[in-house]
User: Fold Peptide ABC transporter substrate-binding protein from Rhodocista pekingensis.
Amino acid sequence: MGWRAKTLLLPLLAALLCWGPPAGAAGVLHRGNGADPETLDPHAATGFPEAHLFYDLYEGLVARGPDGRYGPGLAERWEESEDGRTVTFHLRPDGRWSDGSPITADDVVWSFRRLVDPASGTHNAQYLWVIENAKDFYEGRLTDPDRVGIRALDPLTVEFRLARRTPYFVSMLSFPFLVPLPKEKVEALGREFFRAGTLVSSGGYRLVEQVPQGHVRLERNPYHRDAAATAIDTVYFYPTENQETELKRYRAGELDVTFTLPPGQVPWARVNLPQDLRTTPLFGTYYYSVNLTHEPWKSSPGLRRALAMTVDRDVIVEKITRAGEVPSVSYVPPGAAGYDPQVPDWAGWPMQRRVAEAQRLLAEAGYPGGKGPDGRPLSVELMFNTAENHRRIAVALAGMWQQRLGIQATLTNQEWKVFLASRRTKAYRDLARNSYVGAYADPNVFLEFLRADVGPENASAYANPAFDALLDAAGEARDPERRRALLAEAERLVLTDQPVIPVFTYADARLVSPRVTGWIDNPLNAHPTRFLALRP
Assistant:
């Protein structure tokens, strides 16, 4: 082989090492995944890129099927007590971790205690406040983990004792961050457990390789109960924060599924790739969190409302996102049975009237014409994670506020992991992009993130005792109508205090190769690979 042939071959070999088998290889699926995972510890992760991985790696007591609906997972059945405060799960006798060892009730009990142990670094404890004594244990008022309402009745039976009747409890356990882990192995290895070569999983796949900023490679878990029916042997997840780059990879045949689609390319895809384009309404909200640990935001709800009132959401969804998103001034999205998202009193006003009222609120807060006492314009920093879509939305918001209120905005983008850390620690100055797709279809799943005691995931540091009291009362309400009324009152209070600025109800836009079968669009954005297959 001559020198020229070798030099041409080396880049090809490098590309193959980076990308793995080409898209279309039998039994191999290539999925775009947005960003490098923050962590492979499901109890500490919170983002979409991690969730997509965890649907393949882990399984909860209940699990989401191909349509996003929950059903039996590690537990084959469960029953609730008459008062709704005790739920008992029966594990599958043949349940195995990916190394062949049995999945036991002790693993489940230990895992849920880990979730509410502040020393574990969890970011998902707030979901489990409904478990008896879980909140007191997390906040240090209780130090004995045996008093948390979770116990093993026998090697295959786990009992949860709840602080109150919780209609959504079972469905919530299908959330991919609330999964059991193997007790002995995590205790022995600590953080080293969550790496290729040591991680033991319970889902349809096991971790084989993780290349930072390259890919995560999973292979079919031979010990999963549905292993024989799983058509795809290997799945690659690729972090690609640049959406245009991801689209190019898809068009080059390097990806079978994209994580998203550049908004500007949605109309093009409708014409040129109609069989590939998937647009799906989600049970989720795109919004900005306002940092209430800083002034002038901390003591000026009127200033926060002025920003919310002057956002032209129609322009954002029609000109920027263009994937079927719905403009929204509500924090809770549509989709929870029997609940109507609340709206502020100004929601139906024309923009001219909104601007006039916002300018009045601005002056009342000490910023007439958008200028402070020193005569300089109020400056607002908008922080977002690196992605073209987020940048364009931030640019639009900055332009609207400057034109209508005289406020100057600066834009700060950060890589995914840095961004998450900044938002959790309130290390952003003014406003930070936020979004959430519900872990379960109930208004509480959104509202609970604004409780004063929820911890780092309350990105605004919102603290209103009246709001917390409404959520507590809703939790105790036995009558469903009374419960929904209390939750609606809590949302109205949020829209008055405005610790968050809703922008739109989410829709998912991505490309899925016609070769991929079994893909079912659903509002929870759940697409476990084990339910998919590839046409020859």
Residues 1-20 have pLDDT under 50 and may be disordered. The longest strand covers residues 277-290. The chain is about 30% helix and 20% strand. The two ends are 34 Å apart (CA to CA).
